[in-house]
Amino acid sequence: MNKTNVAIVGLGTVGSGVAKLLLDHGDRTARHAGRTMWLKKAVVRDLNKPRDVELPDGVATDNLADVLDDPDITVVAQLIGGLEPARTIMLQLMEAGKDIVTANKALLAEHGPELFSKARELGRSIAFEAAVAGGIPIVANISQCLSANQITTLEGILNGTSNFIVSQMDRYGSAYDDVVRKAQELGYAEADPTMDVDGTDAAQKLAILAHLAFGATIHWSDIPRTGIDGLDPADLRYSSELGYRIKLVATAHQADDGLELSVAPTLVPLGTPLAEVRDAFNAIRVVGDAVGPVFYHGLGAGQMPTASAVVADLIDTAVGRTKITFQTLAYFTSDHPARTKQRDTDRLAGRYYLRLSVGNHPGALAKIADVLAQHEISISSVIQHENQPDQAGQQQTDPVPLVIMTHEAGEGAARRATEQIEGLSIVQGPVVRLRVKA
Amino acid sequence: MNKTNVAIVGLGTVGSGVAKLLLDHGDRTARHAGRTMWLKKAVVRDLNKPRDVELPDGVATDNLADVLDDPDITVVAQLIGGLEPARTIMLQLMEAGKDIVTANKALLAEHGPELFSKARELGRSIAFEAAVAGGIPIVANISQCLSANQITTLEGILNGTSNFIVSQMDRYGSAYDDVVRKAQELGYAEADPTMDVDGTDAAQKLAILAHLAFGATIHWSDIPRTGIDGLDPADLRYSSELGYRIKLVATAHQADDGLELSVAPTLVPLGTPLAEVRDAFNAIRVVGDAVGPVFYHGLGAGQMPTASAVVADLIDTAVGRTKITFQTLAYFTSDHPARTKQRDTDRLAGRYYLRLSVGNHPGALAKIADVLAQHEISISSVIQHENQPDQAGQQQTDPVPLVIMTHEAGEGAARRATEQIEGLSIVQGPVVRLRVKA
């Protein structure tokens, strides 16, 4: 039987999972690859650090040259996180003739065009299924399985940490900070969860998917994004009263005049698939003009789901499928102009949820409705409850929370109306404004 | 740009859809294939029959030899249904050097081993994404995307017609026959819907998926199957009262001592993804030992979803990916023994829903419970309502419907207990027995 020699660079959580699959399930991998996938080297920073995988003698090394200089190693899983030295190592590996499999989404989001150009120049390939939505094979599905379609919409829950936090806040009515602590204890959130909760991670994944699905070349930082870090349990409660659940939704929609992209906490109708995505799961809904809607749901992160994607890519690369796909689709090529451009943000259309604190003055609602009318935004529903008695049993009258759901409006109009409402003397504090999924 | 000449044999609903995608979206297909996909011939039975696609001059022919004898045509979408002449034509095409893309699931379920052996012998490939679950690319997902996994469970709603009928019965409380007529009017059921509603179609699809996922070589007719054709709206009502929805579920589960396979109306817990699959949609849940659960939902049939799968396969075949996969995975090879065998049906374990008509005799429930106990089947819940008054206002007392949910039991024990209960003098008519999903 043929043999492909594989190396892993970076033996963290995912790297250890990849090593386990290659070492413990060689027969299975061989069956699916039609060849032995032989783990020849694993490059680590510290040889003495304890790991949850036992490597055969001679596999572990702290010297990258053991991989670079070994012509028998043709495929490398590059699993170092961050931008540097990950970028430099990936370039070195490709220059040494290795095909690359990576899970490093931040690296691709930042340096994708450079790395893909270099790969093409050198006749190498980069596979990156594991970079987006871990266990959901969305890269292969868009690039190959749905290749007969013009994709019109792609929307999903792409960040498991955020979804875990929002799910917990929703289920238990807990405050954001308390749930973040719980998520950190359970390993669902990192010590510094900023990139997950502020929408950066989801925007980086969306930028990659938008390139595959729409041929758009957009830097993640140009995608308008709001995280879940400011979310108030009150908004989860009101949403549920209105028949919605709040989720951090990443959306790409091809409109006639450009591509609408956004990452934002969004009210999703209860009972629809995205609303039912719980805890650390990810989900993606793709609409193609031929296939119609296709929905994917699976674990978006974690050691073995991500390792599953890496090993599938290692097999695809070893058998030659990756090379064909990589050459055919010409990802991030500078000679192909982007097929679609991002649409002017102000023109993104959607419905909005607004929550205000309003003083108890006659005509307050009329004043607010008037501002919305000036911006041609019409109201679809309103919630205003009597205040609960305070702990001393005193009826609270001032301020009262007022929740307004609008009909469809442009993002620009909604933003300007919100700013104007915040300037009204009867309105206290900032207005909470969230998108509502149709 | 390179060009691949393609032919379609059989220009029915799906064939016309494939022609539309190739003719109307040549730029898109070229982008995804890195080459022009040129529809050179479409073989039809009757050149004068009106069709919903307009073919350029010279493309339509009623002579298969125009394809067989044209060496420039290398890839053929063989879209004739049924077993013959589909089988003979496929063999002729392969002998003439063509790679095949097909949507004919019945043909593969019946003659897969012969056709795949012939393809290998001749150095040809057969792609068949469209044969199972139309718009859900489950074949590629199992064969490639999840290749790092041992799949442990695969379960799904694989027949859109049945699901449409059950969904409608459930929503409107309608009788089976009425809904079948409606489904026929709407085009969701054929004039003779037998193969769809009796579980044959789902069993054929399951046999193909079980081969891909578990290396099992099982003839579809050996899969125990029950259709939805005998379903009583009363059982949908009681199921809902118990917190379940009835779906026609196809299941393959790898147990220690073999593969459990079945197609049967099954009580699925409300709120779980399979329970929420409506109308003509299909869904498949795959559990892999590394990736965990992955859930797919999409349109299982229809012109364009199926054409989407065919065209993706045409592209994969033209660029060379299909050949690699076909050679690597060696589907249905007689020299590889099946990796797993079907488990003895009697040992399939599961929970059961039983509905009986019981005469109003003291001790009736005790007698029934006693039979279950003899077979070591324990009861998890019971529903027995008072009868409704009849139209004349008379309280009906005899017989009373009795619904029993059991804890886990073997299929053999459940069947024998059911037969014994049917023999009790207090029980009238047959006992309805349905599986319950954990």
From TrEMBL, chains A, B:
Residue intervals of the ACT domain: 353-435
SUPFAM superfamilies listed in its UniProt record: ACT-like (SSF55021), Glyceraldehyde-3-phosphate dehydrogenase-like, C-terminal domain (SSF55347), NAD(P)-binding Rossmann-fold domains (SSF51735)
A molecular function GO annotation: homoserine dehydrogenase activity
Biological or metabolic pathway of the protein: Amino-acid biosynthesis; L-methionine biosynthesis via de novo pathway; L-homoserine from L-aspartate: step 3/3; Amino-acid biosynthesis; L-threonine biosynthesis; L-threonine from L-aspartate: step 3/5
Matches recorded under Pfam families: ACT, Homoserine_dh, NAD_binding_3
Active site annotation, chain numbering: K205 (proton donor)
Binding site for NADPH: K105
EC id: 1.1.1.3
Binding site for NADP(+): V9, G10, L11, G12, T13, V14, G15, S16
Keywords: Amino-acid biosynthesis, Methionine biosynthesis, NADP, Oxidoreductase, Threonine biosynthesis
Catalytic reaction list: L-homoserine + NADP(+) = L-aspartate 4-semialdehyde + NADPH + H(+)
InterPro entries noted in UniProt: ACT-like_dom_sf, ACT_dom, Asp/hSer_DH_NAD-bd, HDH, HDH_cat, HDH_CS, NAD(P)-bd_dom_sf
Residues noted as binding L-homoserine in the record, renumbered to the chain: E190
Family in the record: Belongs to the homoserine dehydrogenase family.
Protein's recorded name: Homoserine dehydrogenase
